Every structure is written in C-alpha cells, then in structure tokens.
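Our preliminary data section would be incomplete without showing what the modeling component actually yields. Below, a chain of 186 amino acids is followed by its predicted structure, encoded as tokens that our downstream tools consume directly.
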Amino acid sequence: MFLSAQDGRRFFRLQQEIDQDECRRVQALGCPDCGGPLDRNDHVRKPRGLPFQHFESDPRRLNLCCRHCRAHNMPESVVYLGRRVYVGVVLALASILVSGLTPRRLARVQADLGVSAQTVRRWRQWWQSGFVQSRFWSERRGLFLPTLDVLELPKDLVGRFVRREGVSRLLAFLRFLSPLRGEFQR
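Predicted structure:
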C-alpha cells in the first residue's frame, strides 16, 4: 500500500484543513457577483478510491452560497479535483503508477485503490490530451522549464515540485491543480 492507514488518515485530515482554510478565505471575500455575504452550503460527497475510512463524519465538499443573489461559489480543493468522485491524490497516484502500463502495475492499482482498468486508462488519456489542451495548462505550462514530457504526465509534473519531499511534494502538486475544477472533465 502507498501509505499506512494511520498516515493516510493524517494526510487527508491535513488536506481537509487546507480546504477549510481556503473556504474561510473565499467566504471572507464575499460574493464575487453582488458583494453579499457567503454562507456555508456544504454537501455530502463520498470519496472513492481510498483503502480506508479517513473521515470521522460524513465527508463533505465545501461550498458557499450568497445570501443575497444565491450564487454558488465552490472554493478550490486539494481533496477533490472538480466534480470527480475519486479524490485527487488517487487520480494522480494511479495515473503515475500506470506510467508504462504493465499488467502487474494495473493489477496493483486495481487491488489497492479499487479503480477499474478502464477508469485508469481514461485518466491517463486525460493527462496526455485533455489536460495539456486545457486553458489551465496553457496558462501555466511556461512555469516549467525545461518543458514537461506529455507522455510522462502527471509523474513529470509532480517531480517538478523539487524543493519538497514526499507528502509535502504531493500537497504542493494538489494545490497547483486545485484551480482546475470545471476543466477536469472525463
């Protein structure tokens, strides 16, 4: 397994704290449409792909709603990438592990994370086509020189967060991806 159950729970609690901080920051700014106050309007979201239960209570996706105009504002998240049901770290790690896809690697990902082969292949394809064609990436790819090898995404991208080690590197990577939200399709 990638992390022990205890370390995994700690990692996801840290991610939740980061999401809570971001939600409070966005809430303090008020509604971007009318300037009204933003109220919490979280919703239950069952994350998939985790080999252990990491939430003490029902998992929630943090969300805000304007008290005046009712506009919704979903803060960026390091737990969830857009509308995906699998948590971001699972999507990234599974995609990295199947780089140079072998039956053995795929079997390990399926066994440890409960992700089907079809889903992992779709994720790999998204990294190599949808991601590199996204507005998000076109605005940020210049931050990485020398350029990244598209066939090695997301592994090559994670590797660029060089000043960090282990979990810190992974959190930095997830923070970098958190603005994706709407662009993270299929």
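Residues 5-181 form one domain. Helices lie at 5-29, 88-97, 103-113, 117-133, 135-140, 155-159, 166-177. Preliminary results of this kind motivate Aim 1 of the renewal.
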